Structures are given as structure tokens and as C-alpha cells.
Structure to design on (219 residues):
């Protein structure tokens, strides 16, 4: 609570260079952060418009996954600010960057949820902050379509283990009719792609149309 109040009183400063004004200043967005090339999110093959490549399509219902930045030291600071400090000003700057990116048409925005335990501990869910800000800019609704089971820690798991672990971790929770709605699914960092894939499968199970994913960073 105190954190939130102090944030209202203190002007926003760039998380990278500390210039007053916004969560990420224009110059850091252009210079310090490296735009990530358009690739398949599963195998990193270069593709057009961040499409999933032909050989990976059978593994995932995700059609395209747009990643803003290469996960280097600068992008790590940005993600840290979003994920562990819940900086809404950083979320706002990232939403602007997403809004400026060439994303496919979508009807609703949703996000990769956190466990209830972690949500309680932190008081926020990083991808949700981003979803909310993007919803404000794009005037598209954002819905909590998924929930995450409370067990299974993810940190430290190897690549194969991660795919196994993530199975059954998410549940479609919305009663709304999603038939054919195009969904934009937001996450902070993509590592193996297992989380995004599993979430997209659940969204499809819930009746969604095409699922497009976006993330802040990936190696
Ligand atoms: Zn800056
Ligand atoms: Zn691929």
C-alpha cells in the first residue's frame, strides 16, 4: 500500500537511465533495448510477422508470437521492474511499444496468470499490468480467461521437464462465449515457449478463435 502511495507522489523515472517522464524513455526504447527479430517462438527460425514456422505448427495452436526485445541486460531490468516491482509506468511504456508494433487484429486481450499464492505475495500479476495498459490504449477489452494451479514450482526446471511440468497447469475459467474471438495472449518472458503453448491450448478448449501471443522479451 505504501509502495503504491509513494509511487503516486513520485514522478515516473525511466527504469534504465532514470530520466524523469515515463517508465521507459523514448531514447532507451530506441537505443538501449534491442528489438528482437521476427522468429518462430518455438525453434527461433526466422519467419515473417513472427509466425510459427511450418515444422512447429503441429505443436501449438498459437499462430504468431511477437516478442518486443532480445533478453539482454537492459531488457532484464525492464522485466524485473515489471515482474518484481509491479511498475505500472513501465507497463504503460511497454504497452505503447506493443501498440506501435504490427500486431494482427484481435478482439480481446488476456494474459498468462500467476498462481494465487504468488499473486497474494506480490499483489499484482506482471502480464496483467501489461494487458490492462494495452487495453486502455487499444480500447479492446481485457479478460481473465485463465487461471493457474497453485502447485508445481517452475524455477530451475530443465527444458524437457518444463514442458512436462506445465501440462495441466492452466485452466480456462471464463463462462463467456468465446466462439471465434481472436485472442491476444500476453506474457512477460518466453523461455521454452511451453507456458504460452499450454495457455493457448486451454484458450482453444474454451472455444477461442486464433490465438496470438506477445511477450516483452526472449533470449
Ligand atoms: Zn531512459
Ligand atoms: Zn519453429
Amino acid at each position: 500500500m505504501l509502495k503504491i502511495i509513494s509511487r503516486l507522489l513520485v514522478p515516473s523515472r525511466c527504469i534504465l537511465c532514470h530520466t524523469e517522464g515515463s517508465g521507459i524513455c523514448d531514447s532507451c526504447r530506441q537505443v538501449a533495448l534491442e528489438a528482437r527479430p521476427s522468429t518462430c517462438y518455438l525453434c527461433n527460425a526466422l519467419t515473417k510477422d513472427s509466425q510459427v514456422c511450418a515444422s512447429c505448427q503441429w505443436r501449438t495452436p498459437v499462430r504468431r508470437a511477437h516478442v518486443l526485445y532480445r533478453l539482454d541486460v537492459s531488457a532484464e531490468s525492464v522485466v524485473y521492474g515489471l515482474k518484481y516491482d509491479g511498475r505500472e509506468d513501465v507497463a504503460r511504456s511497454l504497452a505503447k511499444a506493443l501498440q506501435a508494433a504490427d500486431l494482427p487484429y484481435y478482439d480481446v486481450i488476456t494474459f498468462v496468470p500467476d498462481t494465487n499464492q504468488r499473486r497474494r505475495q506480490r499483489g499484482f500479476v506482471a502480464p496483467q499490468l501489461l494487458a490492462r495498459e494495452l487495453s486502455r490504449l487499444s480500447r479492446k477489452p481485457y479478460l481473465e480467461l485463465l487461471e493457474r494451479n497453485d502447485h508445481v514450482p517452475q524455477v530451475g526446471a530443465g527444458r524437457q521437464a518444463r514442458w512436462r511440468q506445465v501440462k495441466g497447469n492452466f485452466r480456462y475459467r471464463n463462462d463467456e462465449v468465446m466462439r471465434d474471438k481472436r485472442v491476444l495472449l500476453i506474457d512477460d518472458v518466453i523461455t521454452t515457449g511451453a507456458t504460452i503453448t499450454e495457455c493457448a491450448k486451454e484458450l482453444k478448449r474454451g472455444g477461442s478463435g486464433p490465438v496470438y501471443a506477445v511477450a516483452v522479451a526472449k533470449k
About this structure: Residues 88-100 form the longest helix (13 residues).
